[in-house]
Amino acid sequence: MCGIIGILGQKNVASALVDALKRLEYRGYDSAGIATLYNGEINRLRAPGKLRNLENKLADCELSGTLGIGHTRWATHGIPNEANAHPHMTDQLCLVHNGIIENFHVLREQLVSKGVTFESDTDTEVIAHLIAQELIIHKDPAEAVRHVLQKLDGAFAIAILFVGYDDLMIAARQGSPLAIGHGDEEMYVGSDAIALSPFTDKITYLEDGDWAVISRQSLTIYDKNGQSVKRNTKKSDVISYHVDKGNHRHFMSKEIHEQPEVVGHTLAHYIDFANNEIRVPDIPVDWQRLDRMVISACGTAYYAGLVAKYWFEQIAKISVDIDVASEFRYREAPLKPKGLSLFISQSGETADTLASLRYCKENSQHILSIVNVSESSIARESDTVLPTLAGPEIGVASTKAFTCQLTVLACLALSMAKLKGVLDRDQEIDMVKALVELPRLMSSILNNEHEYESLSQELSKARDVLYLGRGINFPLAMEGALKLKEISYIHAEGYPAGELKHGPIALIDENVPIIFVAPKDNLFDKTISNMQEVAARGGKIILLTDAKPDDINCELMARIGLPTAQSLINPILYAIPIQLLAYYTAVFMGTDVDQPRNLAKSVTVE
After folding, report:
1. Of the listed 254, 400, 540, 601, which one is catalytic?
2. Which residue of 4, 256, 258, 554 sits 20 to 30 Å from the alpha carbon of 447, by its own alpha carbon?
């Protein structure tokens, strides 16, 4: 959530700041702003809503200056309006901030008691006034910032300009990610490498507690104790790109259609196609003694972990404890030393997942992560990283990242089973061949996209939708419900089909669509029994299945036929129809598909 960009350049930076913010739109935001320093003075433009509102203001107002900062805000303190938009200013400085200052109420009251007047409802303005107060005492900006950072509790990333200092920016990080980019007599600050990719591929990542004094030709980093430290500068593998929907109406549509390709790329990373063999990197644990592992994630990544729980337990014979990260981090679960803990995150910056990782690390676990951003905080703090190779995902509702996560998890389950000696060579060949078929089968589903468009028109009339599945299809039911509710705003719930009679059946009438995720597997007949219970009560049944019409002995609203495949890969295939149903329903309802209200792509605060 939120995005930061800062440029110490040689030319006017206003347009470059806005362009960089466009590359951060995927993180989610509800207002935006930029500020530049010109002739020693700070000038600022802010606007609620989309970046085009800020661009329109900039077109009517020349904003000069070769030093500047910009921000896209996702509201935490205060409603989305111009007053609460960043950057925030005092007479001496201007700053942008990601994160949440947990003790801001106490700090604000102290400032008010000293006669400070606030113009916004944000926690960020507190930081600006605290630094202004310290500047009165210490004069030196770096010394003022150092004293203020010691007063702040919470997660934050900050970039600051100072009146009268045309070759200075100060940045700080605690919890929220922040990177420094190195150019030719230019320097940059950004929330991630994507924001910096058009300017440079030389990146220094600040670590927790770090703060940096930056000029066009120098970078000095201090740790939380104020000691000067060296941090590695890396060559970023993020390719500079301009966000482009291609021939698609929305990024979500484009990313749904990219899935055969990116899943293919991911498979190529983990499979030796010539020998039908899994080749997951070595994970240094004692596989013969390992009988239990921990998985933690948030949102869609959590549902990927739930699917993987079935794979790990059924194929690799390893018991799995899985929690949403926001619960796990406070559960204080006892962990056996030298155990294995797995964390899944698209961005690699998810705050609760990162906190759970650190808890496990403190408890002597081997940290394994599956991330889509190889330079992210979670990746850097893990012992072993398995990349998903989905490429940048712009739509807030995860699609290709989810199927790539599932692909990596399936490969990991097979690798674990081999290492534990519970998967023989013939079984490995059979399952690898099934995985290799994924891109072709995914493409065949996408070729019948028109089925979902007409069906979604009916779905858009519903107020409530139930998704039901059994076994490994239950997490797919929850993911389908999540997709529908987050982009169409229709209330939806995912349940295990066997729980139908334990509550959800009370909701069923002729106005409630029920979507069954039901490949013809060993639980299919039981799922058919649940469908008949729904049909008897007038429910509108939409069935996602590879079963033939003759196998289904009840009345349906619609049957979406899917290709028959090895059971291992069904969860990956069935992700596509639930994405398409949600997408077309949202399109028909006219919602903001790529940036749904109140949501952010990367949740970097608790």
Report:
1. 601
2. 554
